[in-house]
Amino acid sequence: MYDFDQIIDRRNTDSIKWDIRDNELPMWVADMDFPAAPEIVEAFCDRLKLPIFGYSKLRDEWFDAYINWWKRFHGMDMNREHLMFCSGVVPAISSVIRHLTAPGDKIILLTPNYNHFYNCIKDNGRQVLEVELLYDRNSYSVNIEHLETAVSEPAVTMMIVCNPQNPTGTIWSSSDLQRIGELCRKHHVTVISDEIHCDIITPGKQYTPFASVSEINKNNSITCIAPTKAFNLAGLQTAALYIPNETIRNKVRSSIEKDEISMPNSFAAVAAIAAFTSGRKWLEELNEYIYKNKLIVKSYLQEEIPQIKLVWGDATYLLWLDCSALKMNSKDLAAQIRKNTGLYIMAGSYYGKGGDSFLRMNVACPKEILLNGLERLKNSVYTGK
Question: Is residue 77 one of the residues assigned to a domain?
């Protein structure tokens, strides 16, 4: 048994999440308030016994860790030659955009979508083409008709798929992913599939890797994977790219080498190996805890704040809250909540089209902190205090 109720004071620890005012409670950025699995910490301690931290290369164990994990838990066979290290998913996506597309090209996002993807696209001189998801007040689905229109535009050369989806927590079905893959291949649109959240899943549910669905998907995609979200290791800068297509792989390898994001630091491989070889039991208990936190939020909103509705998603620890009944712009609402109660959560408008009536809330925290946050949310809605 692991202790996820333990509260660790992260103030004054150079934490981006906790660099806030004393009376504030941060539940915004995708950063868990749980200590890393002790098996991973032990691996770091073993590495520290060698007090030299020079340039590192990848051991066979790094490749084996990824390959065995995806085969055992996600049913996908990966070839060692198709894997490459990168120091982060977002830097890799930016690098791929710079080197595999041209200035002015359009890149498709299914919205609402992870806000940093917009930065990756716009900051590199490309255009975002938003295809808004269908929302039926309970769940999200892909508007295939609109997507087909979008991918057929001549300026569209790439699509970024968030699988599972951030911020809605949606797990895309095999049929959804297959249809996306077919449309993109038909119109010569390369797919980047960000699967960094794939291991934070409701117990009993399963995500489908984009590349596992068909040969078409496999040969026209770049899959971004990492232990960082599931094992709370984002500050270690460790990730991987899985690219079966040789032509695409060679271009990407060249791009990440040019952009200097292909070299692991002294702890990057250690973290991934320890997580994927020794972290399964910890992850299972973590997912149970997060699932219970989601149920707490669902029940609390229904009973105490019925004006706010949880849009249930079976992936991620980021909850998508429908606040349309409050009739407020999400930026104004989030700012009001923070000002009046100190609760810091994200405005849905940051995630593009379809997000303006929503808030995103991180529930990867001890139950005591979660209840504190919910109470603050309630106070803001009812009293403005």
Answer: yes
